[in-house]
Design a protein that fits this description.
Layout lengths: L9 H14 L4 E5 L1 H5 L5 H10 L7 H5 L1 H5 L1 H4 L5 E8 L17 E2 L8 H20 L3 E4 L7 H7 L4 E2 L5 E2 L7 E8 L18 H5 L17 H7 L6 H7 L2 E3 L3 H4 L26 H5 L3 H7 L10 H15 L5 H6 L6 H14 L2 H11 L6 H12 L3
Parallel strand pairs: 3-8
Antiparallel strand pairs: 1-2, 2-7, 4-7, 5-6
Helix pairs in contact: 15-17, 17-19
């Protein structure tokens, strides 16, 4: 695919890149530039500034720390002239919301059930970037959600789709199920045509949200988002959202799953994106029994491992509390003396939701006098006040 500088045709070269990207497993490719990125009507920099000013980023402090670099790709790398955005489909073969009816199983977000997409895509991006470097004699840098880049607005500017009312990228061919990667290059390449916003009057993604995380179309308050709460949030999950979480133990796909454009999305071809047996929405009873070593072994190589056992067990206990099934009482009691306050607090809450009141009072009499964490103590007091 080497380009002769004397007869280099940038437009034809981008088409060659699309062909090479398809061979590497990418479904779509487009090009934008820092200037074209800023000229979009979406005004990504202004949207980011408002997101942070409103505090919608929650405890994702890195978004504020790197805000200036996130607003402008040239702040990240001054030599960038073109930004090549690529998308790889991870569309599921089944309805990802069906698992919400199975209260004794933990619902895992589709993207997290297979091998970590960062590991899969980065190698492919590097392979394509090496080819671009050889062909253009210009430097390249590769990113897969690993740097302060606004991937979704960049992908929209590169014509991969548009940012829907749920703030995620929507494609006419892949629906809402695209992993994104970026190659920044010092080569000058032509900008791809943009897609118009085709959400129209549809608001399914907004209306389906269990926690009303969208203040308005195209705006997200991450602090109310179940994906944020169960993955990024490091602390205790507020009581106001626990019922809405239902049996979701890692992420939430509702706003993606209901998008009408998904009817055009074929199931992902990459088998490593598919669920393994141990990550295929496992039984809650199995998840409750995981210690740290077992957690790391079970979810090795998946995005789930990065949250750590304690946060994950916090989520599992919320799902158990929402199950209404008293068969988990023994396992919950075992976790009342867990080393992590995150786990102990949610064990108390889960117990209060499914156990007989006399049993809750008995366990409180044992554990509350020994407790030293303020939040866990407040959960015990809340459990004791809860009507029978």
């Amino acid at each position: 695919m080497a380009a002769n500088p004397s007869d280099f045709d940038p437009s034809a070269y981008v088409e060659q890149l699309r062909s090479e990207a398809a061979k590497l497993g990418f479904n779509t490719l487009g090009v934008t530039t820092p200037e074209a990125f800023h000229s979009t009507s979406y005004e990504p920099a202004a949207a980011l500034d408002r997101f942070i000013a409103e505090g919608w980023h929650g405890d994702m402090g890195w978004m504020e720390t790197h805000r200036l670099r996130r607003r402008d790709p040239q702040e990240l790398w001054p030599y960038v002239r073109s930004i090549i955005m690529l998308g790889a489909s991870y569309a599921p073969s089944e309805d990802p919301m069906a698992i919400l009816d199975e209260k004794d199983r933990g619902a895992l977000s589709v993207y997290a059930r297979g091998k970590d997409y960062h590991d899969i895509l980065k190698g492919r991006l590097k392979q394509l970037a090496r080819q671009i470097h050889e062909d253009t004699n210009r430097a390249c840098k590769v990113f897969v959600d690993t740097a302060p880049l606004m991937e979704k607005p960049l992908a929209a500017a590169a014509g991969l789709g548009w940012q829907g009312k749920h703030t995620n990228l929507v494609s006419t061919t892949e629906g809402s199920w695209l992993f994104l990667g970026a190659i920044l290059t010092a080569a000058n390449l032509p900008v791809s045509s943009r897609h118009e916003d085709r959400c129209g009057s549809c608001r399914r993604c907004i209306d389906v949200c269990p926690t009303n995380a969208f203040p308005a179309p195209y705006q997200l308050d991450a602090r109310r988002c179940i994906s944020y709460l169960t993955i990024e949030h490091k602390g205790h999950i507020p009581r106001a959202y626990r019922r809405a979480i239902a049996n979701r133990v890692f992420g939430c796909d509702d706003c993606l799953a209901v998008c009408p454009w998904n009817k055009f999305a074929a199931a992902a071809r990459e088998t490593r994106f598919a669920a393994r047996q141990e990550t295929d929405n496992p039984p809650l009873g199995e998840l409750l029994a995981l210690d740290d070593t077992q957690f790391r072994t079970r979810f090795a190589g998946t995005p789930i491992k990065r949250t750590g056992r304690d946060r994950f067990m916090r989520n599992v206990l919320i799902a158990v509390g929402n199950s209404g099934n008293q068969r988990y009482v023994g396992a919950i009691i075992n976790l009342l003396e867990d080393q992590s306050p995150l786990v102990r607090a949610m064990a108390v809450w889960a117990l209060s939701q499914i156990a007989e009141r006399n049993l809750v009072k008995r366990e409180a009499g044992i554990w509350l006098p020994l407790e030293t964490d303020d939040v866990v103590m407040s959960e015990w007091r809340y459990a004791l006040r809860r009507p029978a």
